[in-house]
Amino acid sequence: MNGRTREASERAQTALPALAIALLVLTMVTGIGLALADGAIGAADREPGERRVAVSLAAGLVAPESPLTERANVLDEERLSNVDQRQLRTAFPVTDETAVRVELDGDPLVTTGTPRTGTTIRRLVVVEGRTTERVEPSLGWQRRVTLPQRGAGARLTLVPPAGTNVTTVRANDRVVLHDEDGLAGTYEIDLSRFETTTLQFSASGPLPDGSVEVEYDALRTRKATLAVTADG
Amino acid sequence: MDRAQLPVSLLEAALGVVVILAVALGFVVGVPTPDTREPQLTAYANDAATILVNEPPEHRDATRLAEVLADERSFQRERGELRDRTGAILPDNIMFRVETPHGAVGFPVPGGVTTGEATVTTVEGALTIRVWYA
Predict the structure, then answer these.
(1) Looking at CA atoms only, how far is residue B95 from chain A in angstroms?
(2) Of A181, A213, B80, B128, which is least packed with CB atoms within 10 Å of its CB?
(3) pTM greater than 0.90 (yes/no)
(4) So what's the pLDDT on residue A1?
């Protein structure tokens, strides 16, 4: 400060209180500035670690190779009910160090640790459930039956009356079962998931009601939101 | 000039205050808020695209999308259903636009919003989904 260097001036003393005031003001402003800086740095802490865990865990859970999914973004209802903490920790070791909560449509699915706040990432999924449906079709003159739903496979039980030989079963004109000596009993057949299946039976005699029974896996799907919260 | 000392000292202090406040202002204004909405929007777009592209068809072809995008006529016929289906998959607070080789369904993308985007390929061409918060 200039005041101090001008000791020759008789008015220099008057600068001293002004200097003190100036220093005081500067110190106060510096303090306020530091507090602002501290607040800004505190507010800038976005916990990138937990965000990364939430994003990648959510992505891993809906990926095709996840323990929950059937295909990408399609969760299997059966596996959902079996999922537990141990399984989650084995599949995603990151959940050992971070408290995470996985929710499906708001219902907690599995939790590790005790997450309180944290970052949440939501993924859209389809939950697929399987039920086994049975049909006992009465075959018309064309001996065809169209399954009402698509599925990956079906179980066919053939009980032809005496004197009737069921030789061939076709699914959409593709031969799935064939035996010249006659088919009887229960057979597993593979079907296409991508088209509606029509089964056609070739037999040497009449096929009354009850001689054919089809069990197939019916897929029921519903839309859901998978929320992954990571804390810490 | 005899009386110059007092104002100079205070003037310096005032200058110092201005300098310090300028630096502090940098802390207050200069920390940009990271846009944390974008990863979530991208995740929504990716999920919607994955779900759409894997849906079974209603009439023919391998998937529902291939059926809708098969040609101009089928697209014109099914565009309403495609819009409803996409809207049903996405959460209620999300707006969307689906761009296909035959045209687009959904809402026009407003300027200056954060959007998430995902593109999937089908046998009939690429399909792009853009989503943003309503």
Answers:
(1) 15
(2) A181
(3) no
(4) 46
